[in-house]
Design brief:
The complex is a heterodimer. Chain A is an alpha/beta fold. Chain A has helices at residues 9-13, 16-25, 64-69, 82-85, 103-108, 113-121, 123-133, 145-154, 175-182, 184-198, 212-227, 257-264, 293-305, 307-311, 344-351, 385-390, 409-423, 429-446, 453-466, 470-474, 476-485; strands at residues 2-4, 30-31, 45-49, 52-56, 161-166, 202-207, 232-233, 240-247, 288-292, 314-315, 318-319, 321-328, 334-339, 361-366, 373-374, 399-404. Classes of the chains: A alpha/beta, B alpha+beta.
């Protein structure tokens, strides 16, 4: 009998450690797996017996005795729970299924097949495979991963780097955290493949300090990978690759790739002007691939199963699957990986089951604090990069935050500006000053000065077109989308937000 | 007039030297050094500035610029307990504003404030990655999902 109790940070935040302790006290060995992604069922316990793996959740310590004596009914196998059954899991296929730090378990579920194939193929063929897969940067920008790799592969330098951006600061997103805690070897394998493809021998994973569990799991996984020749001399081939884990220090802007590189170098995390591209002059001024966790963690399955299989999923220029994170005021929140193309409304109403409060959905914010609000009128928008762009929004890192009808849209617009002011790196004026003026202008509107609305629109235009990076440049998305879809809340008849 | 360093200051200087030495081989060693100093002392003591600046061949002004840029690095120690409450949108959608107002109100604090007895500091945090089980908080490094005023205060005022 095998008992699985997740060690995922969300499961732990909901009490999974205490549940695991009760199973251990009853004499059972507990495997601390990642989360299966159904956060409303966490702590989700699974017990495997006679080849059948059944789930219970949410489990409190007091439920354990009943689970063991059979008096508490099971939810059945996770694979049969509708939220899970309708997913197409490629990147997250192993997350929650395996013991995250058991390399044999990883290999038994397809791990390292991609890397072995990559070693046989050689650098140019790897780049071609990734290009053909249609994989685009999962951090939000959506730049084709294979083209970025090609640029670095062709660049000349004494040393090249793979930098994994694990500074997942967007509200409503937790996929990077989940994969690092639940299947860390897939990220390591993806980075090694990237290293082979471009000729880099050193990789860094820059993890935000708000993710202590992910940092711990990744540190241990890197150590295990070194002991087993995944890192070092890669699978006893002629290739060298090593990874170092680095920890951020609480600056949201360091999720922007150039400020991340400055931070990694030990500087203030200010944004660099582009060009030069990091692909040519990145970490320490050398050619550097900067990829999001999900982009790199998807590479092994592409190499394992082939570009054609991956490219066969999706919609238009959005190829493959996306681990969508459903969050906020939602009945069934969690990680839902599916092919691009599902309409937003289906995700919110069918998959997630509407709001947790049971009240009507007023708006959803897609793509983090810099993403636009979508009112239900836009719920037929299919989930894809171009499709969301066409509706004045962005998919970003694919977080969806649901709000019920009690949401204060002017207050949320003000918060967007306030957040930008707190987190601005200060390098460019539209962001540094604009965000502060944005808060003031929204306060004027809240206090009754509806005449300040044109000023707010003008300010948003300046920030959008004049900022160096997405922080100042995209803060207008939530602000303008709230203003355009809920103009009645900006009429200046209400009390101040604060 | 020469001042003699107190024994604890000498110990601090050698400990800081040890931390610096442990990271100096890295590419970009400054953040790892600052994290270790912050973890060891609960802040970045002024006595650490000169040795770090010298070892890394940067000016003290540059070092100050880095320390002050990042929210994690403090110039003074926080309270015995640190409560971080998520202010980001996903947590706002499930009542984070009311939660933080109540916690701050009961403790008589503003954000970043510490109670007069030095027991509790409350800080804002922007996302802990617990967006499907908010409101989220972190109490002394331990994550809390679906946090309530009672659960947060019970831990730090007991």
């Amino acid at each position: 009998m095998k008992v699985y109790v997740p060690r995922d940070a969300a499961a732990r935040a909901l009490g999974s450690d205490a549940v695991a302790a009760v199973f251990e006290a009853a004499g059972h060995t507990v495997i601390r797996n990642g989360s299966r992604g159904m956060i409303w069922l966490e702590p989700l316990v699974e017990i495997e017996e006679n080849g059948i793996r059944s789930a219970w959740g949410p489990v409190a310590p007091g439920d354990v005795a009943g689970i063991l004596d059979g008096s508490v009914e099971s939810l059945g196998p996770v694979e049969d729970i509708p939220f899970f059954a309708r997913q197409q899991r490629l990147t997250f296929a192993r997350c929650g299924l395996i013991d995250p730090l058991d390399l044999a378990d990883y290999e038994a579920h397809g791990g390292l097949k991609g890397l072995r194939r990559a070693i046989e193929m050689g650098p140019e063929a790897i780049v071609t495979e990734v290009k053909n897969s249609g994989l685009r940067g999962r951090g939000g920008a959506g730049f084709p991963t294979g083209i970025k790799w090609e640029t670095v592969a062709k660049a000349r330098g004494p040393q090249k780097y793979i930098v994994c951006n694990a500074d997942e600061g967007d509200s409503g997103t937790f996929a990077d955290r989940m994969i690092m805690e639940g299947d860390p070897f897939t990220l390591i394998e993806g980075m090694v493949i990237a290293g082979l493809a471009v000729g880099a021998t050193k990789g860094y994973v820059y993890i935000r300090s708000e993710y202590p569990d992910a940092i711990e799991v990744m540190e241990r996984a890197v150590e295990i990978a070194r002991q087993n020749n995944i890192l070092g001399r890669v699978l006893h081939s002629s290739h060298e690759f090593d990874i170092e884990i680095r920890v951020g220090a609480g600056a949201y802007v360091c999720g922007e790739e150039t400020s991340l590189l400055n931070s990694l170098e030990g500087k203030r995390g200010v944004v660099r002007a582009k060009p030069p591209l990091p692909a040519l002059e990145g970490f320490m001024g050398r050619p550097t691939v900067v990829n999001n966790v999900l982009s790199l963690a998807t590479v092994p399955v592409i190499l394992e199963k082939g570009a054609a299989l991956y490219e066969g999923f999706g919609l238009g220029r959005s190829k493959g699957t996306m681990p969508i994170q459903i969050a906020g005021n939602v009945r069934h929140g969690g990680l839902f990986e599916t092919a691009f193309g599902m309409p937003l409304g289906e995700l919110v109403n069918d998959v997630a089951g509407g709001t947790a409060s049971g009240r009507p959905v007023k708006a959803v914010q897609v793509g983090g604090p810099l993403g636009a609000y979508f009112a239900p009128e836009k719920f037929d928008t299919p989930f894809g990069y171009e499709e969301f762009d066409g509706q004045g929004g962005l998919i970003g890192h694919a977080g969806i935050v649901v709000f019920d009808d009690s949401a204060d849209m002017l207050g949320l617009a003000r918060f967007a500006m306030e957040f930008c002011a707190v987190e601005s790196c200060g390098k460019c004026t539209p962001c540094r000053i604009g965000a502060v003026r944005g808060v003031e202008t929204l306060d004027r509107i809240a206090a009754g000065d509806a005449g300040a609305v044109p000023l707010l629109v003008d300010l948003c235009q300046t920030m959008k077109h004049g900022s160096l990076c997405a922080l100042g440049g995209f803060t207008p998305y939530p602000v303008m989308s709230a203003l355009e879809q809920f103009p009645e809340e900006f009429q200046g008849v209400r009390e101040a937000a604060e | 007039m020469t001042a003699t360093a107190a024994p604890h200051e000498t110990a601090q200087v050698s400990e800081i030297a040890r931390i610096i030495a442990a990271h100096l081989h890295r590419e970009g060693p400054l953040l790892p050094i600052l994290h270790d100093v912050q973890a060891g002392y609960g802040h970045i003591p002024a006595a650490a500035h000169s040795p770090i600046a010298e070892a890394l061949n940067i000016t003290r002004a540059e070092l100050h610029g880095v320390i002050s840029f990042y929210h994690d690095f403090k110039d003074k120690q926080a309270g015995v307990h640190v409560v971080k409450i998520c202010r980001a949108e996903a947590c706002q959608s499930v009542g984070a504003n009311a939660l933080s107002e109540a916690v701050l109100g009961k403790l008589g604090l503003d954000w970043h404030g510490t109670t007069p007895d030095g027991r509790v500091t409350v800080e804002p945090v922007y996302c802990l990655g617990l967006c499907a089980c908010g409101p989220a908080a972190m109490v002394d490094g331990t994550l809390k999902g679906r946090a309530t005023v009672e659960t947060l205060l019970a831990e730090v005022t007991a």
